């Protein structure tokens, strides 16, 4: 039954019902170990060390990269404050055709591992240790089945994704960058993401003049001016995309004033925009609203600050989705195909009840195996870039015209090495 669950698609009536104790499955016990080790951003060292040892025990060559902290680590309340990326590959070949990657940091607070018959709860159980465990298991199974070899894949597990993306930014100096495909692991409910929104954040500063609240005309009320701007921002029409939907604005923090009987001299708000289309135009429209009120100015954060991200989804057999959250995809340099896929839902990812279904974990192993094999030995592909209208219509996802089939559908090296017959067989077995 265990073997069946990890190699065949589960019928829908069986999902939620599969009972597989973590102790009896390599996938679930790997996932358990990862979730049990706390790794809130800034404290990833312990989980990284464990993961490095695990990958070495599975015959990977492992390199670590210090991203932040002291070389020998600094302990704060028993936790080593040191952030290290983990890069692994087979044998001596660092440069590979496909990269599997995700992040090992999680958001606070730590929530302990808890297992039920059908699900695993705990911080990081979904975002993104489910992806990490499923990717590694997929790689191990492909190696055991003889479908991949040295030079085909490497693994990269980064720190700092939940805050600044510093881990992935630093990884650019660690890893080679000539991949044909990079498969990013984040919770996408087992769907292949067609794109995700960008993100831009800023502080609104409102400068007024303090006065006695009985004589408000002698001062300038910074709070009132801030409220005027926030009201206009709420109604602001931002560039929208028919692929990614509307851009959205979240006023996340507000502060202002010192006492009820003092006209406030200072107020500010911190705002996040999920950018669905045209970052420059979005910034222009927001600046226009903010600077229209005297005494109010805007400070854009340097990071995060990027526009919508287009992803590749030219592999058959996956449902597609659009993501509203940010990822590390933008920070990894190189001219590679970008796939975003993983088990679990982003909707539970940062919440108190974070969980992942065990059946999703097993399904994700199948999904990653398929993506890896397709990235190395492509069979039939849907176009990498489609017009928005076409995304909504399922039958248009399969396009027969050779000129619109994506570039990697005709990878010459792959043909030479394996031949078409073996290629097809590899895919059928999955
Ligand atoms: Zn994540």
UniProtKB/TrEMBL annotation:
Compositional bias ranges of the Basic and acidic residues kind: 414-430
A Pfam match: Peptidase_M20
UniProt keyword annotations, A-Z: Hydrolase, Metal-binding, Zinc
Annotated Peptidase M20 dimerisation domain residues: 194-292
Gene Ontology molecular-function annotations: hydrolase activity; metal ion binding
Keyword Zinc-finger attributed: no
Official protein name in the record: Zn-dependent exopeptidase
